[in-house]
Amino acid sequence: MGIALAGSSGRDMHIEIEHGASAQETRDAFLTARQTGIGGSDIGAILGVSSFKSAVDVFLAKTAPNPSDAQTELTYWGHAVEPIIARRFSEEHGVELIRPNAIARHPQHDWMVGNLDGIIPGPPAGVLEIKNVSAFGTQAWGANGSDEVPLTYVAQVAWYMAVQSMDYAVIAALFGGNAYREFRVERDLELEQALIRKGHAFWFNHVLTGVAPEPQTPDEAIRLFKQDDGSVLNADDALLECCAQLKDAQARAQCLNDEVERLEVQIKARMGHTARLAYRDQLLATWKTHSARRFNARRLKPRIPICTNSLYSSAKRASFV
C-alpha cells in the first residue's frame, strides 16, 4: 500500500501486493507500475547519456507485455546493499529516512513517475538516491560533498525532484564495497523543464503510439525487428543511396582487412621464431607461443604508414549480410 511522503506534493500510486508475496512477485508489481510512465532511470537513456540502457531499451520495456525481465547480477547486488547504504546515511546525519513503498507520480503530468530510494525528512525534505558503484567507476565521480556525478544520475535526481517538488537531492554512493561518499544536487528549474519536454515527447510520440525511436546500433535494430513479415519494401532515393554507400563501405573494409592480413604475414615472416619486435628501445609487437600464436597489431599502429585511422577503426564495424 502506498504511503504519504512528508514534504511532498507529488501523488503516490497504489500498488496491490498480496501479503506474503515473494520478492520476485513484489518486483514484478513495481516493474508493471513503472510501465505506466517515464521514470528517473529512463530519462537519462532517452537523452542518450546512460551507459546502462538506450532509448530503444526504454521503449521496449514500456511496450513489452511481460514485465518480468531477467535481473542481472548488477541490479541484484544494487538492491541487496541498498538498505546498508541507507543506514550509513541515517547514521551520518542522525535522521530516520522515509523509505517509500509506492511509486510517486507527478500531480500534473501523470506519465512522470519516480521510484525513490528514500526521502530525507525536512524541513526541507529532499530526495535520497542510493548507488552501489564498482571500483572501476570511481573516476566518473567527483569529491565527497560535490555535485560531480555522471550525467545520467543528474537527470535521474532532477526527475525525482520534479515529481516530488523538492529542492535538493543527495546521492549516497558506495564505491567498490568499502568507500562511502555523498553528493548533493540542487534543483534546476531550467533543466527540469527541458527534461519534461524530452520525456513528454518520448511518451506521447513513441510509447503511446507504439512507434519505436530510431535504432542507433545494429543490435537495437535486431531487438526491434526480430521477425520479418515476408513483405517487400520499395526503396526511395534516400534508401537507395544508403545501400550504395554500404556497398562501398563494405568493399573498402574488405580492402583494409586484406591489407591488415598482408602486413601481418609480412611482419611474422620477418620475425620467424623470435618472440618480440623492437625499434631501438620501443617494443612494437610480440608473437609468443601459448596455446596459439597471437600477433598484437595494436603496438604497430604508430609505425604503419598507410591510412592508419581508417585501418584500425574498421575493426569496430558491425557485420551486415
TrEMBL record:
SUPFAM superfamilies on file: Restriction endonuclease-like
Keyword Metal-binding: no
Keyword Hydrolase applies: yes
Swiss-Prot/TrEMBL keywords: Coiled coil, Endonuclease, Hydrolase, Nuclease
Domain of life: Bacteria
Gene Ontology molecular-function annotations: endonuclease activity
Every YqaJ viral recombinase domain range: 30-163
Xref: InterPro entries: Lambda-type_endonuclease, NF-kappa-B_Signaling_Reg, PDDEXK-like_dom_sf, Restrct_endonuc-II-like, YqaJ_viral_recombinase
Coiled coil: 239-266
Family annotation (NCBIfam families): phage_rel_nuc
Protein name: Putative phage-related protein (Endonuclease-like protein)
Organism: Candidatus Glomeribacter gigasporarum BEG34
